[in-house]
Amino acid sequence: MIIKIKKFIKITLKKYFVIVPIFAFASYSYPTESFLEKITNDKVLSGDEAFIFSAHIQDDENIILTWTIKENCFLYKDKFKTYSDADLVENQKIEGDAIRINDIYFGNVDVFYNKVKQTIDKTENLGSVKVVYQGCNEKGFCYPPISKEIQVDNLKNF
């Protein structure tokens, strides 16, 4: 009887020393997020994260639109469109250091890195401003055109 118990213990211990390391390794190597989540989180920012947009009124005369552009991202200079109510604003004052690049999608174009600012004259009856812009990241991901509608009455005066 004692021999059978010793044999049982010996077999159980052998199985334990084989199975436990397998489970320990499996639990250690199990990812906390899926592969797709990891690629999405690590590689491509959303448009709002890549191009941080803000708007305010300056001296009750101008609407100032600014974009803070994340590292390795850029906005196309010729893709800015601004609409005052429903009409296209013709004389857009865009400030920033544009750099000419050879883009894989659009050829030789001017782009903005880091920061860009646009000034729009504020008229008394201006109800809303719609801004459309587009950019890419340097890894080759291009964002579709991004559209923001701003209610002028809701803007803060700086």
Walk me through this protein's architecture.
There is one protein chain. The chain has 158 residues and is α+β, with helices and mostly antiparallel strands. It has 2 domains: 2-42, no CATH class; 45-154, Sandwich (Immunoglobulin-like). The protein has 3 helices and 12 strands. It has helices at 2-29, 35-43, 47-50, and strands at 51-58, 62-69, 73-76, 81-84, 87-88, 93-95, 98-103, 107-112, 115-121, 128-133, 135-137, 146-151. The longest helix is centred in the N-terminal third of the chain and has 28 residues, at 2-29. Residues 26-30 have low confidence and may be disordered.
Features:
3 helices; four-stranded antiparallel sheet; 40% strand; 158 residues; single chain; alpha+beta; Immunoglobulin-like
Could you give a short description of this structure?
This protein has 158 residues and is α+β, with helices and mostly antiparallel strands. It has helices at 2-29, 35-43, 47-50, and strands at 51-58, 62-69, 73-76, 81-84, 87-88, 93-95, 98-103, 107-112, 115-121, 128-133, 135-137, 146-151.
Kindly identify the CATH topology of the largest domain: Immunoglobulin-like
- The CATH superfamily of the largest domain is known as Thiol:disulfide interchange protein DsbD, N-terminal domain
Q: Which percent bin holds the helix content?
A: 25-40%
Largest sheet at a glance? Answer: 4 strands, antiparallel
**Strand segment count:** 12
Please indicate the percent range of residues in DSSP E strands (runs of 2 or more): 35-45%
| Overall 3D form | elongated
Strands side by side in the biggest sheet: 1-2-9-6
Low-confidence stretches: 26-30
- State Rg: 29 Å
Q: In the CATH hierarchy, what is the class of the largest domain?
A: Mainly Beta
What would you call the structural class?
alpha+beta
- The CA-CA distance between the termini, in Å, is 91 Å
| Average pLDDT rating | 80
Q: From the 3D coordinates, which CATH architecture of the largest domain would you assign?
A: Sandwich
What is the H-and-E element order? HHHEEEEEEEEEEEE
Total domain modules: 2
Number of helical segments with 4 or more residues: 3
